[in-house]
Structure formats: structure tokens, C-alpha cells
UniProtKB/TrEMBL annotation:
<protein>
    <recommendedName>
        <fullName>DUF5067 domain-containing protein</fullName>
    </recommendedName>
</protein>
<feature type="transmembrane region" description="Helical">
    <location>
        <begin position="28"/>
        <end position="48"/>
    </location>
</feature>
<feature type="transmembrane region" description="Helical">
    <location>
        <begin position="54"/>
        <end position="72"/>
    </location>
</feature>
<feature type="compositionally biased region" description="Polar residues">
    <location>
        <begin position="7"/>
        <end position="21"/>
    </location>
</feature>
<keyword id="KW-0732">Signal</keyword>
<dbReference type="Pfam" id="PF16729">
    <property type="entry name" value="DUF5067"/>
</dbReference>
<keyword id="KW-0472">Membrane</keyword>
<feature type="compositionally biased region" description="Low complexity">
    <location>
        <begin position="121"/>
        <end position="155"/>
    </location>
</feature>
<dbReference type="InterPro" id="IPR029050">
    <property type="entry name" value="Immunoprotect_excell_Ig-like"/>
</dbReference>
<keyword id="KW-1133">Transmembrane helix</keyword>
<feature type="region of interest" description="Disordered">
    <location>
        <begin position="121"/>
        <end position="157"/>
    </location>
</feature>
<feature type="domain" description="DUF5067">
    <location>
        <begin position="142"/>
        <end position="262"/>
    </location>
</feature>
<keyword id="KW-0812">Transmembrane</keyword>
<feature type="transmembrane region" description="Helical">
    <location>
        <begin position="84"/>
        <end position="102"/>
    </location>
</feature>
<dbReference type="InterPro" id="IPR031989">
    <property type="entry name" value="DUF5067"/>
</dbReference>
<feature type="region of interest" description="Disordered">
    <location>
        <begin position="1"/>
        <end position="22"/>
    </location>
</feature>
């Protein structure tokens, strides 16, 4: 009598204990975690100029990882972490957008800085010209012959001596488009250092290029045209040696350009100038 109830109790409880066993938990998707980390790093780097190029690449990689993580963490998928995957996608897209915005802002800042420097140089040229005109006017009251001589020596066509240096304006030719798609002109100079110490073209001269009476901005290329060396004006030249220098400028249209070169600092002698027709 006592054995039968015991057997019945055991047969009833065995299925219940088996039915309450918990299902195995899914592991978090490694792709989701990797995408989230890349997204965070990308957002941080996207605010830093130059480095934000890497942020854009990290954003692309993180976006791919995040999409893979979303697919793997579906309800019937082998992994969990769908929320992490979605956050990774959002952060990576945000990193790429911020990078593009920051690069555009940096490009605009460079354009404004270049325009400001050109305007400053043009203003200094105007002040120097006005000062020279005033001095010439004063000297004309004492000697007409001296005024005529000064006027004839104030401008040298194509080449001449500017203080301790000899300069020749060789050519001004079209040189393709700059980084912003605008046409450019490349001006070539040849000069000789007749001083007693080594110096560079940028230290010895003040070159200006005008079109329609307005000074042109220095061109910036993504890929330099043939024959253009942006570092040539900074190269040091020993006494008695000569060098060729190329400087590029952004054009406003296809009208002729006038090249003028003066000496730096306290130099008040003649200037070398020439007008070129663009080919």
C-alpha cells in the first residue's frame, strides 16, 4: 500500500522539473561592440582637422560592422546586442557627416585667410606707391631734370637689378585648375643673388600679379601642374648663384595679367614689370 503512492509521486514530478530548465542565453555580437567602439572614436576624431580623414574611414568600417551586428542579433539570430548595433550605425554615420562638415569649414577658412593676406599685401603696395609719388612730387619742386631721370628709372621692363639682386620675369602661362576648380596662371622668374649672403626669392622680392587692376590670390593645387615647384621661392641661394622660381595665381578671367616685382624691406628703387597675354 505504501509503495504505490510513492511511485505515482515520482512519475508526476519528473516532467515538471525538466520543463522548468532555462534556455541558453545568446552571446552579445562582437560586430556590434566593434562597430560601437569605432563609432565613438570616429565621432571624437571627426572634430580634429586632418586627423578626421581617419575618422571617415573608421565610420565606414564601423557602419559595416553595425549592419552585420543588426542582422546577427535578430529575434531568430544567433547573437544578441541589437541595441548596440543600432547605436554603432548612428554614431558612424554621425562621424562621417561631422568630418565632411569640418573639412568644408577648413577649406573656407583657408580661402578667407588667403584672400586676407592678398588684400593686406595689396594695401601695402598702394601705401608704398603713394609714398613714392609724394616723394617724387617734392623732388620736382627742386629739380625738373632729377624728376625726369627718376621717372625713367622707376620701372624696368622684364628684367633688371633690384638692389643686390638681378631679376628676370620669364613667362606667365596657363597652368590648369586649382583645388577649387578655378583657372590659374604660373609665373616663372629667374634671379641671381649678387649679395654677400645666402637668401631666398621670398626674402629678396615682393612679387605681385594683377588682372583688371586687381591683385590675384596665390593658387593652391591638389595636384601640382608640370614644371611647378611650390617650394622654389623658399630655396636658399648662395652669393653669385642663380635660381628659377615658379609661383601660381588664381585667375578671374582670360584677360592679360601684369607682373610686378619690387625689393623687400626699405628698398625704394625701381621695380621690374611686364604684361602677358594668356594663351
Amino acid at each position: 500500500m505504501s509503495d504505490e503512492p510513492q511511485k505515482s509521486y515520482q512519475s508526476d514530478t519528473t516532467p515538471q522539473s525538466q520543463g522548468t530548465q532555462p534556455a541558453a542565453a545568446k552571446k552579445v555580437s562582437g560586430m556590434a561592440i566593434a562597430g560601437l567602439v569605432l563609432g565613438i572614436i570616429g565621432v571624437i576624431f571627426s572634430f580634429i582637422p586632418i586627423i578626421n580623414n581617419a575618422a571617415f574611414v573608421l565610420g565606414i568600417l564601423g557602419l559595416i560592422f553595425g549592419i552585420v551586428g543588426i542582422r546577427a542579433s535578430r529575434a531568430d539570430g544567433p547573437k544578441s546586442g541589437r541595441g548596440l548595433s543600432i547605436a554603432a550605425v548612428v554614431l558612424c554615420v554621425l562621424a562621417m557627416v561631422i568630418t565632411l562638415v569640418m573639412q568644408q569649414a577648413a577649406s573656407n577658412a583657408i580661402d578667407e585667410a588667403t584672400s586676407s593676406v592678398s588684400a593686406s599685401l595689396s594695401s601695402e603696395t598702394s601705401d608704398t606707391s603713394a609714398s613714392d609719388t609724394s616723394n617724387t612730387s617734392d623732388s620736382s619742386n627742386t629739380s625738373d631734370s632729377s624728376d625726369a631721370s627718376s621717372a625713367s628709372d622707376s620701372t624696368l621692363d622684364t628684367e633688371g637689378d633690384l638692389g643686390d639682386y638681378h631679376l628676370k620675369i620669364v613667362s606667365a602661362t596657363s597652368a590648369g585648375a586649382d583645388y577649387n576648380g578655378k583657372d590659374t596662371v604660373m609665373v616663372t622668374y629667374e634671379w641671381t643673388n649678387n649679395s654677400d649672403e645666402a637668401t631666398s626669392f621670398a626674402t629678396a622680392f615682393m612679387p605681385y600679379v594683377y588682372q583688371n587692376g586687381v591683385s590675384l590670390d596665390v593658387a593652391i593645387y591638389t595636384q601640382s601642374p608640370a614644371g611647378y615647384d611650390p617650394q622654389s621661392e623658399l630655396s636658399q641661394v648662395q652669393p653669385g648663384s642663380s635660381s628659377t622660381v615658379t609661383v601660381a595665381y588664381t585667375l578671374d578671367d582670360s584677360s592679360p595679367v601684369q607682373v610686378e616685382v619690387e625689393g623687400l624691406a626699405l628698398y625704394h628703387g625701381p621695380k621690374v614689370t611686364h604684361t602677358f597675354q594668356l594663351s
